[in-house]
Amino acid sequence: MYSRIVGTGSYLPAKVVTNFDLAQRMDTSDAWIRERTGIERRHIIAEAESNVDMAEHAARAAIAAAGLQPSDIDLISYGTTTPDLVFPNCGCLLQARLGCRGAPAFSLEAACSGFIYALAMADKFVRAGESQRALVVGSEVLSRITDHSDRNTAILFGDGAGAVVLTPSEQPGIISTHLHADGSYQHLLYCTGGPARGPAPGNMASGDYVRMAGSEVFKLAVTLLGRIVDETLALNHLDRSAIDWLVPHQANLRIIQAVAKKLGLPMERVIVTVQEHGNTSTASVPLALDVGVRDGRIKRGDLLLLEALGGGVTWGSALLRY
Ligand code: UT7
User: Fold this and answer.
1) pLDDT category, 60, cuts 50, 70, 90?
2) Are 134 and 126 in contact, with CB atoms under 8 Å apart?
């Protein structure tokens, strides 16, 4: 028994902030941001909008694409690092809106790898026969934990949400998932505070911010994502030429290009959204997947490799036949 993606959906807030907008506020330029990251613009959440608001749009779109009703969902696996509340978890908040009462609903936090982790969890429930219609969400409001005066991070992040629905299938489907973490790298990419520790000294009133040693994370990402590509192919006895589409985490175009090169894939076989979305953390992989599916590039039967690395550090991949 496998699980298979039967619907995808995504949502981006209406407000767009371009590199030129940022260059008016801080010491940066469109040329620097584009050359170093590939980012041109990003979507930023409205003041009255929340993480779960975005997730609900993405989830309803994925459920409709699957030909199901929201009340059909029997499991919610929700990846996020920027929840509306500490609790109830975002999965429960979403479940109440969708009306699938009683379905287990949890959120998990693995920073930018959160969607791969959430997908792997849901896949295991479906394979075990414990879920027939699982909803997997990645939704993130990184703009609310970004220090908008820090040009090292403020230029990178955007907000958004993506979702998929999984159902059981005798044919793959999700072929394998690979999850890793190494907490000894926690100092390279982290949020300065949390409910158990409170805000970091010197921060603004409620300000817990993302801090990143960018070039160290960059090098680590290229190394560890390269390694997980090898691991995924070797475990499945596959040659890299078998992959039809790379659907990567959208942190930096240069990291994406390095992984594509490792796979011997031309960039035409890579779903790239970083120029439009910036880095939406947990949301970036399902957003890219939905873009590729809806514009018709990704077709039924194609072999997809999804991968991501984020704070923790955490990293992971999923090999699947769409
Ligand atoms: O999603 C989770 C995983 N995250 C990632 O994978 C992100 C990984 N890291 C990166 O994408 C890149 O490291 C960054 C885009 C964050 C930075 O690019 P970089 O090529 O590694 O630049 P750098 O941090 O080494 O900085 C180079 C120079 C520095 O100036 P000096 O010291 O050489 O004079 C920075 O101060 O660029 C300067 N700089 C900027 N200049 C203009 C840093 N940020 C900016 C900026 N605008 N926004």
Assistant:
1) very high
2) yes
* pLDDT for the residue 105: 98
Q: Which two tokens stand for residue 205?
A: 């009133």
Active site residues: 112, 249, 279
- Select from 218, 277, 279, 287 the residue to mutate for testing ligand 1; criterion: most ligand atoms less than 8 Å from CB: 218
Grouping H, G, I as helix, E, B as strand and the rest as coil, residue 92 is helix
State the alpha helices, DSSP H only, in the chain.
19-25, 30-37, 51-65, 90-98, 114-127, 151-154, 214-235, 253-263, 274-277, 284-294
Please tell me the distance from the alpha carbon of residue 205 to that of residue 276, in angstroms, as a whole number.
Answer: 32
Q: For residue range 66-97, what is the model confidence (pLDDT) as tens digits?
A: 999 999 999 999 999 999 999 999 999 999 99
Tell me: pLDDT of 64 over 80: yes
Distance CA(223)–CA(269), nearest Å, equals 21
Query: Does any ligand 1 atom lie closer than 6 A to the CB of residue 30?
Result: no
Q: Are strands 75-79 and 134-141 parallel, antiparallel or unpaired?
A: parallel
How many alpha carbons fall within 13 Å on the CB side of residue 322?
A: 23
Which tokens sit at 4? 């298979």
Please give the full DSSP string across 244-284, using - where no structure is assigned: -EEEE--S-HHHHHHHHHHHT--GGGB---HHHH-B-GGGH
b/e sequence 181-216, b meaning 16+ C-beta within 10 Å: beeebeebbbbbbeeeeeeeeeeeeeebbbbbebee
User: Cα(181)–Cα(312) distance, rounded to whole angstroms?
Assistant: 7
Q: How many CB atoms lie within 10 A of CB 226?
A: 16
Instruction: Tell me whether strands 303-310 and 245-248 are parallel, antiparallel or unpaired.
Output: parallel
C-alpha closest to that of 271 among 283, 258, 282, 260: 260
Distance CA 1, CA 170 (A): 5
Could you tell me how far CA 181 lies from the centroid of its own chain?
A: 16
Distance CA 70, CA 73 (A): 6
Ligand 1 center to 156 CA (angstroms): 10
